[in-house]
Amino acid sequence: MLKTLSGRFLVLTVIFVMLAEVLIFVPSVARFRQDYLNERLARAQIASLALLADDMVSAELESELLENAGVFNVVLRRDEVRQLALSSPIPQPISDTYDMRNSAAPTLIADALGVLFDNENRIIRVMGNPVQEGGLLIEVTLETGPLRAAMYEYGFRVLVLSAVISILTAALLFLAVRALLLRPIAGVIRAMQSYAAAPEDARSLITPTASVTELREAEEALRTMQTQLTGALRQKERLAQLGGAVARVSHDLRNILTSAQLFADRIEGSDDPLVKRLMPKLLRSISRAISLAETTLAFGRAEEPPPTLARVQIAALIGDVIDSERLATGADDISFGEDVPAGLMVRADGEQIHRVLSNLVRNARQAILATGKPGEICVRAWEDDNAWWISVSDTGPGLPPKAREHLFQPFQGAVTKGGSGLGLAIAAELVRGHGGRLDLRDSGPEGTEFAIWLPKSEAVLQAAE
Questions:
Q1: Which of 72, 115, 146, 316 gives a 20 to 30 Å CA spacing to 374?
Q2: Nearest-CA neighbor of 452 among 322, 318, 323, 337?
Q3: What is the DSSP letter of 58?
Q4: Are 322 and 441 members of one domain?
Q5: How many CB atoms within 10 Å of residue 318?
């Protein structure tokens, strides 16, 4: 029971209500003691007035008056004259004197607790003001035993009443909390369990119904999270299906390209000057396409393979990329520029960096073509003490906001209509494999610029691996 929220709330409610009753019980007992003593003073005064009315009171009547008043003797001061009105033998000396005229609350509480925890039957003197202005002072002597017994009886009644009130209050609070909090929380838990059993099923999404503001906000936040997670799971499923389809297409494409490579090898010996000039580029393109198909098949099984690092003449690699894109452009009014030192050597995987640059230059070319206006693509490379830099810039229209928000995310960062958004994601992953990074340096109406940063430090390369 104590492990459940409702059980703990019930126990805590009973404890706190009982604590409140205890805090009420102590002043109540003190008040009862004060009333008890004041009542004894009033009875003693009445007995004294009876004696004053008739001086010839017998000893038997005097004893009866004292017994009815519950005291041993009575002293009544009238007109500055102190006189013993009624008296009887006192069984033991007086232990304490209490003045009921000027008692503060802490003093009354302390005196009441003293009587409760003192098992001895003592004789005490009590002083107070006579009622109805019947004199200046009245004092009596009495036993603490009957007082203690009356206080015990009163305290027992208060405790029983407190227990009943506590149980009733705890039950009402428990039912109220169960209706207002525990049932909605249990509903949220059932909704979470139902959603966990079938997260792809949109029917399992929670419907906010709580009337309590905080619970309503929790239900709405849970629904938002469930909606986003369901969308992510569906996207993951679609990506898995697409990955399988891409793997099958890559397998068949690899076979087709292998056959094309055999045919190209046969016509490589042609005497046609144009064929001789274009055939090496065609063979290299087919080889790269076969390598890409094989890499795609490997990507479907695991991550991109780690780069095979070697010294690469970056000028030749960039020139090959630009020549391929220039041939693809044809007669379109797009110019290409290079700013690369002839002897600059970069430690990298040539095939992977070629794929990265091809993706960036191809995206730049497609962006310019989409505008229908002339444009320019420029590739620059340089080095400093810590890294090699390669920059690809264009004079296109810039990236749209959605593409910039999901720039390197597969199937979300597509720039051109009909694009998959895979190019930049693959390029960024390949550069990260070199321990570097691919950054968008600038994008606006004047154009876009991407920068590749490749570290020279061996430690960075080893960390990337």
A1: 316
A2: 318
A3: -
A4: yes
A5: 24
Full domain range(s) for residue 54 = 5-172
Q: Do residues 351 and 418 both lie within one domain?
A: yes
| Two structure tokens written together for 418 | 């009909």
Which residue, among 358, 351, 347, 299, has the nearest Cα to 323 in the 3D structure?
358
Polymer length of the chain? 465
Count of helix runs (H) and strand runs (E) in the chain: 12, 12
Whether 411 contacts 239, CB under 8 Å: yes
My answer on whether 357 and 420 are in the same domain is yes
332 and 450 fall within a common domain: yes
Kindly list the distances between the CA atom of residue 413 and the CA atoms of 140, 369, 430, 446, in Å, as whole numbers in the listed order. Answer: 99, 19, 17, 20
Task: Report the C-alpha gap between 404 and 414 in whole angstroms.
Answer: 9
The answer to whether residue 425 is domain-embedded is yes
Per-residue pLDDT of the chain (465 residues; tens, 9 = 90+): 556 666 777 777 778 777 877 777 788 888 888 888 888 877 777 777 666 555 555 667 667 777 777 788 877 776 665 565 667 778 888 888 888 877 788 888 888 888 888 888 888 888 888 776 656 777 888 888 888 888 888 888 888 887 787 778 777 877 887 777 777 787 888 888 877 777 766 667 787 877 777 778 888 888 888 788 877 777 777 766 666 666 656 655 665 666 566 666 666 666 677 766 666 767 667 766 666 666 555 555 445 667 888 999 999 999 988 988 887 666 567 889 999 998 899 999 998 999 899 889 988 888 888 888 889 999 999 999 889 999 999 998 888 887 777 777 765 545 554 344 567 888 888 898 888 999 999 888 889 999 999 998 765 555 555
> Rounded distance, CA 252 to CA 285, Å?
17
Residue 405 φ then ψ, to 5°? -70, -35
Q: Is residue 191 part of a domain?
A: no
Tokens 């055939």 correspond to 279
Task: Please state whether 421 falls in left (phi above 0), alpha (psi between -120 and 50) or beta.
Answer: left
- Boundary of a domain, candidates 127, 148, 172: 172
**Structure-token match 């009876």, residue found:** 50
**334 and 409, same domain (yes or no):** yes
Do 10 and 155 share a domain, yes or no? yes
Tell me how many degrees the CA angle 173-179-184 measures, rounded to the nearest 5: 130
- Cα–Cα distance for residue pair 6/374, rounded to 1 Å: 73
Same domain for 377 and 460: yes
